[in-house]
């Protein structure tokens, strides 16, 4: 008889509605059926689950069903399943979950390929179930005792994983019996600490982990009592200490228990628990902190946990309750900034009567600064840049604000900003500022100049890019000088969102003319209107023209000057009487600045015309508005008729 490769063990208690689906996912695995044995242990069910299991066993030869009196948790039925398992590997499948079709084949192959004792297959949360944050990438071989490893703190202690059975038996590992939750803490942690190596399979959905719709799972209903939990956690931390000498590796193992079972339970359960549970929780947490919290681990805690640890260790029970309720009701606190240091203002910050040290509240990260740009505007030859800076999560102080403008050659201008007094907002202290940039009068050289904002407050200094929103347009300007001719100053990116850059010099871009539109006049002339660019400086304004170009004849340009139509627009009316047949492309020309650029019609669709522009010679035009670029099509109806009469004539004669 072929020995099973995998033993799937499923504890069952009142899961009649889901257990068939769970077991079916094991029966239909991609591995051959004889390679999988399924062991279902009924733990005294009263809803018909036991009878259903017996029926399933008649239909599936690979299913073994065991019955026992209710034991009060999943530990005992899992242990009984282990007693009869014969597979090379063991997988624990809960009765309300299911496996992916290829899960066992993929996990066993990975274990054999890497000679690993545990494979953690990717878990998918169902019905709001949260899964551990370990499945970002597949890891062929790792271990929780490796220096710097974060696996022990990120994994779940639920035993819903693939284990090599020899690891379990050689170490004598079994589940804690008679508890509603945490029964797998010592088993799973013991296996991880003793394993030769561990694999993480993250590129296949192996396990669908469900939260019960009726909220009746042991974890959903609160799990085991505090006395049972802390008896297990105390033993678990001692177990971890046996496998790691004092130092960083032991601390990284113990950090898990402090975060989840000490600080996590103090913050989640302690405030509203019955008095006896509160007393056990508080006393147990204090014992664990006194025994295992090292100065190095204390420094690595977040401020809230540091303050909690100090209060517990100094027998400040009322303050622990206040901290837990503050965290539940308010979330993250505001910051106090002082001489380059940042403190989270949890309760009792600098309360002399309580005496929690400042170090408990301090964070290393500098304050976060948010910047919002207002539309820049030209005032004579000065570019006004304004916006708001928000020092997030602060409620005190007014920052000093400068703009830093720098080109690619290291030339930098540090420009002071006029600012209004800061205001308290939900986000933090908000300050409005305005800066005046004078690239023309100060003679900044051509090139790209990046714009950043520098914010200084209480000894902290942050410099961040000035970002132009996607829908904000900063019009280009034309600078003129009597001797230097015309020069452009543009804000980039012209379209879209991105870091603000001032481009001095260079050529126009089609995106500089977003307001262009086209029409045909009553005289059937092509009329194009554009937004009038600002012209600054003491020199004469350069000529601006609308130019039509025939792609087959570089000398056939048709042009007309763009003249003021109103204070905000320029307009050109262009006659098409002399236009030869073909497709003419419309350009905008700024004399003395680069090459002509194509005219875009970003909001236009359809076409204009056709219209007759001359009868001798005959000319008809249509203007396409539904293409990327403005294009004028000119046809000669008479020539088209003649071609129809002499179809053999060469196209070159036209």
Automatic annotation (TrEMBL):
Glycosyltransferase 2-like domain span: 7-136
Listed GO MF terms: transferase activity
Domain TarS/TarP linker intervals: 228-324
Keyword vocabulary terms for this entry: Transferase
InterPro entries xref list: Glyco_trans_2-like, Glycosyltransf_2, Nucleotide-diphossugar_trans, TarS/TarP_linker
Gene3D superfamilies: Spore Coat Polysaccharide Biosynthesis Protein SpsA, Chain A (3.90.550.10)
Pfam families: Glycos_transf_2, TarS_linker
PANTHER family noted in UniProt: GLYCOSYLTRANSFERASE, GLYCOSYLTRANSFERASE TAGX-RELATED
Name this protein carries in UniProt: Glycosyltransferase
Source organism (scientific name): Actinomadura spongiicola
